[in-house]
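COURSE: Structural Biology Practicum
ASSIGNMENT: Worksheet 4, Part C
STUDENT ID: 0417
INSTRUCTIONS: Below are two proteins. For each, the amino acid sequence is given first, followed by its structure token string. Answer the questions at the end about the second protein only.

PROTEIN I
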Amino acid sequence: MRTAVGLTPLEMTLLAFEFTMEFVMPTFSKIVRFAFLGLASTALVAAVPSVASARPNVVVVFCDDLGYGDLGCYGHPTIRTPNLDRMAAEGTRFTQFYSANPVCTPSRYSLLTGKLSIRGGMTSKKNRVLRENSKGGLPADELTIAELLKQSGYRTMCVGKWHLGVQPEHLPMRHGFDHWFGLPYSNDMPKQLMRINTDGSTVSLGSNPMFRDDEVIEHDPDQRLLTERYTDEALKFITAAADAREPFFLYLPHSMPHTPIHASRRFAGKSPRGLYGDVIEALDWSTGEILDTLRKRGLAENTLVVFTSDNGPWLIRHENGGSAGLLREGKGSTWEGGQRVPGIFWMPGTVKAGAVTTELGSTLDLLPTIAGLVGARLPDTAAADGYDLGPLLREGGKSPRKEMFFYRDDELFAVRLGAYKAHFKTQPAYFEPKATAHEPPLLYNLDVDPSEKYDVGKDHADVVAKIAALAENHRASVVPVKNQLEELIPIPAGETK
């Protein structure tokens, strides 16, 4: 039987099959292929940060009074820090990394601004740190890491101890942070938080307040839980930023191991080092949680994590204080133990892995290093005392930092240039009321003598002269500014604890 077009049913079937194979199937194949690519692209977008969030994230973990010798990877024989040891093995560990000051308020100012505290009026003989009733704080015109990154579209959060001023204009929310959860000052300052009202009157906000953003949410929080609560907040922030595929900056200034030290039930009684070891091992756990979260969210290769301390160990606290290892003295002094601290940088695929560098680095260098990493331009007036460590972290080699200035309060006590450090004045961290001036200055070769035991000044008069000239040039660069630490608000009688 023939059809109307003159073909048999079998011929029509064969013709239809040929048409399908030649025209329909290739078109269907393209549709299927495009649909697959669309699905794959959608899945890829879900798995990989967007173009905006492809910008590097930054996490800075800043411990309080952690000593140079307190971690396993820095030689402590009984404190177990497997997460930080792994972080060091996967990143770059500095053996000559310095906080900018031997006490906490000035060192925190310097980390966030890249400037020595003397330049911002954030140091004083009268009050070595900001008090809970201080009028002053972090000046409004200072550029912080948070402000720089906020201007570049980053989410920003501070979790932990602030200690850069308690008046509203000095709190984190006024200096580039979207959010803050933590304490305004050290955990041994339980007196009344004093604020100035807009009409000039003063008000007490109560003792040891815990803040969320600009609001006090509780008083006298259980200090055994601080490290865990800070960690929970940090992980929530990272997770929210990852879900939104937005770049982020997390500043995590822990309250521990500043005394009084406390450990939760999870860690108490677990370390051979005792309570202090329990506290450090909790900080190690906290850092491990952050690194694990970054790995699980696929953010490890796109996040710079820095671990360091605000100054050396508080040795006068005996067993409740830490260790400076082979270094001399501790917190409060300009000897090496007061300012040389752990410094670990981690960013798989970018920061050189398994590197131990003897080059110089400092918390002063974080702002310019982060600016270089994210491609942000710094104003000429920013980070006056910092260097970009990016090339060193990526490739190894030499550090751009060749010098370090050591201030005790508002006075330059010592200067390091290359391997040599000259002390113009020395003073123990605590109890000794007066400094001892040295003429000629004491001189130590820190490559040979990191414990600063052997004065070699008489054999290197040329080095002493060179460092003395460097010190004079530096002093000439310091412009006097208003001191932020010296004005206090009177605390009404009966309102102190």
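PROTEIN II
(use this one for the questions)
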Amino acid sequence: MDNYENLRLRDPEVTPTDEVLEQTLGGSYTAYTAFRDSPAGFGIEQEWKYYTDGKAWFAKGLRKWTTPRGAKKEKTVYWLSAWDGYFRVTIYFKEKNRQEVQKTEVGDKTKQIIAEAKTMGKLMTFPLIFDIRTADLPADIGALIECKKRIEG
């Protein structure tokens, strides 16, 4: 884990365009575009916003859909942040769904991360954090995104 000194995109006046992200992420920009564009973005829309509580720009990966009755719904599937030379994808799961998440077909290292992740907050969630530096994306991220979409909306 990095300390927050290495978190980038802290200027609320500088929107994270592709040019800004390429400059910020350096060699991992290719990995970012591979993630953003992978299997149609996992059916996820990514929206950047400056958050004053975090004092930085963060992207939410949103699954949007319309219910049979026509109501528009959306669910945050992941959070993305830019760091010094890499980006971080964080997927939060509800504690009550931990056993279901553990059944996801992921590697042993990710299964260990799931088992050891600490529950936090009033909403009783646990984070799964991936620091990504290369375009060779961990297959586990896609599996966990699909799991999140399936069990939490």
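ANSWER KEY EXCERPT:
Q1: The chain has a mean pLDDT of 91.
Q2: Residues 4-152 form one domain.
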